[in-house]
Structure formats: C-alpha cells, structure tokens
Amino acid sequence: MPPRRLVLIRHAQAAAGPVDAERPLTERGARQAAAIGSWLAQSGLAPDRVLLSPARRAVQTWEQAGAALGPGLHPIVDERIWDNTVEALLTAVRETPEDVRTLAVVGHNPSVGELARVLDDGRGDRAARGDLDAGFPAGGVAVFLLATPLAGVQPGAATLSDVTVPAG
User: Fold this and answer.
1) Does the keyword Hydrolase feature in the UniProt annotation (predicted)?
2) Tens of pLDDT along 80-121?
3) How many domains would you assign to the chain?
4) How many CA atoms lie less than 13 Å away from 131 in the CB half-sphere?
C-alpha cells in the first residue's frame, strides 16, 4: 500500500488589490500554478482530495494546477484554510477520510509555512529541509510522508520528502 502523503501548496503569485480575498493571480502566477500541476503529475503526486482556501488566488492556483492532473477531482473549499492558522489547517486535515492516500492543501502564508515546519519530524531530506528553512514562497510545494492516517497527524509526525517551487 502506498504511503499517505500531505502536499502543502502556497498559492501562486497574486496581484495587489483592495480586497485581500479577491486578489487574482498575476500572469506569472498563472504560469506558476500550471507548473505546480505539471510537477505534481510528473512526480506521481496527484491528490485524492484537495482542500482550498476560498481566496480567489488559491482557487485559481488549483484551477491551473488541477488542469494538468485531469478531470474528476473536485476540490473542497474550506474557510478554515483562509483562517490562516496552523490550528485551523490541522483541524481541516484531520477530518480527511481514511481512504484518502494523498491530500493537497492550497493556502497561504504564514500558516502553510508554519505547518510545514511544525509537521517535520527532522528525518526527511536534508536539502528539502534547508529549502523549507529558507521560507515558503508563493507557488511553493512541500511534500510529507505520513505513517498514520491523516486524521491522526500531529506536530513532528511527518517526514519531509520534497520542497520545490516549480518554474512557471
């Protein structure tokens, strides 16, 4: 049985705007988002379930990324991702059904970057950890392997396997 994986994605580059939740992706951000989808597909990381922030830039990031993974996956917009706290993200992740093997969460900093650091058990890829320590930029992706169901994910209980910012 393949391992369970948690894929944390920070939305791609967004434009400025008067209403934060309505900020769209820039042209570069749209290319970044498409590159995220291509990277996920090439890496064999197509998720079984996707949780999205309701912010326009997060929704657009997944629309572009998901296009590379084919039809059939309907993301779940979850207000807790927009709450932008580690606790809210963990609560949403823990409600994942047991049959989900790969969960993707598309959200925002600081919570996505903080969650990545909190989950890391320190046994993963050293280069990936160095990349994570350098920050979690727009369009960044962190992949964790889990020995337990997502419902039981705890701080320090996930092994970081990859960190990337796919070029767009």
Assistant:
1) yes
2) 999 999 999 999 999 999 999 999 999 999 999 999 999 999
3) 1
4) 16
